[in-house]
């Protein structure tokens, strides 16, 4: 099947499919006319890629994981490449969460301090968005 058909069957645009190819995640054959030709297995592969991207993995991580992927969801076999990549990604996520939590705490401290010094004119912060100021 050509790239347009693969896109229709997976809901992924041709530009994104070419990106997956450039990242080594898809390997189409080339027809005599030079067009990309994808086998039926490409539909499953694209669905696997989409699920793994949805888990927050990078395309670089996914390139390591795909040999360990079985099924659409996919189920990942416990091969060493898979476990190392997933542990690395989990560490990066934990670090990001830590930085965000620290930023949130610091911002909350600034808000608390501002409310103590002349903030009596403002309601306490409840996490909601402020009302827009009329133009």
UniProtKB/TrEMBL annotation:
Keyword match DNA-binding: yes
Regions annotated as coiled coil: none
InterPro entries: DNA-bd_dom_put_sf (IPR009061), MerR-type_HTH_dom (IPR000551), MerR_fam (IPR047057)
Domain HTH merR-type: 1-68
Keywords: DNA-binding
A Pfam family per the record: MerR_1
GO molecular function, one term: DNA binding
PANTHER family for the chain: HTH MERR-TYPE DOMAIN-CONTAINING PROTEIN (PTHR30204:SF93), REDOX-CYCLING DRUG-SENSING TRANSCRIPTIONAL ACTIVATOR SOXR (PTHR30204)
Descriptive protein name: MerR family transcriptional regulator
Protein species of origin: Saccharothrix syringae (Nocardiopsis syringae)
